[in-house]
Amino acid sequence: MFRKRLAAWALTAAAVTAAVGGTATPVAAGLLPVSVAVTPESGKFRWTYAIVLPTDSQLQSGNYFTIYDFKGLAAGSVVAPAGWSFTTDNLGPTPVLVSPKDDPLVPNLSFKYTGPTIDAGQTGLGNFWAVSDFGLKTDSFFTAQTNRTSDGKVDTNITTTNVPVPDGGVVPPPVPEPATLVLVGLGLPCVALMRRLRRDPAPA
Fold first, then answer.
1. Contact predicate 110/84, CB 8 Å
2. HSE of 120 in the Cβ direction (CA atoms, 13 Å)?
3. What does residue 65 show for φ and ψ, rounded to 5 degrees?
4. Which 3 state secondary structure label does DSSP give 92?
5. What SS3 class is residue 2?
6. Fold of the domain spanning 31-173
7. Cα-based distances in Å from 87 to 40, 79, 135
8. How far apart (Å, rounded) are the C-alpha atoms in residues 173 and 189?
9. Helices (H), 67-119
10. Residue 196 — φ and ψ, nearest 5°?
């Protein structure tokens, strides 16, 4: 029984290591914000969004994504990778067939792709950032329009992401380094093993 549990702990550690190493199961859906980092900058806060094009999605010129209700936006602070343009509107733009909550008094961040078609899925598209007066976070909506790799038809998706708020939010946790995650994953079985050994009585 103990050997079976030890084997299960080892498999758990291996799974964590594989996921951190980039071999996690691919996700098929439009563009996705896989991480949001908040960094203090000259009395304000830089919000950096890492965006991924998942498997079975194709990025064509004119495709775009929108981050809704980004409060405290500092004028002229938005930066996007090459091949992208930026606009800000208080409403939308929003792809068809999705219905995010959108406050008409708060600006949205929208990034439109202007480069050549990207066929490969599970591709990182780079970091997109904007500076805000606020460092507290809350949940808001993220929508995107891409094309399906299989037939080229338009595909839309909606999910959530973090945006800044002046109050009522929470402090974003620091983003752990990949190596730290691996060590944590490998350390869990060792901690469990030590606890098991302490509980088991010594042999007579």
1. no
2. 4
3. -140, 155
4. coil
5. helix
6. Immunoglobulin-like (2.60.40)
7. 24, 11, 22
8. 25
9. none
10. -65, -45
Pairing, β 57-58 against β 123-132: unpaired
Question: Domain spans of the chain?
Answer: 1-26+176-204, 31-173
Question: Among positive and negative, which fits the CA dihedral 75, 80, 84, 90?
Answer: negative
Token output for 164 = 């800044």
- Which tokens belong to 44? 């304000």
Instruction: Return the structure tokens found at 145.
Output: 């329009």
Q: Is 117 helix (H, G, I), strand (E, B) or coil?
A: coil
pLDDT tens string, the chain, 204 residues long: the values are 444 443 443 433 333 333 333 333 334 468 999 999 999 999 999 999 999 998 889 999 999 999 999 999 999 999 999 999 999 999 999 999 999 999 999 999 999 999 999 987 778 999 999 999 999 999 999 999 999 988 889 999 999 999 999 988 788 766 554 444 443 444 444 444 444 444 455 555
Residue type, 3: R
Q: Is the pTM of this model over 0.70?
A: yes
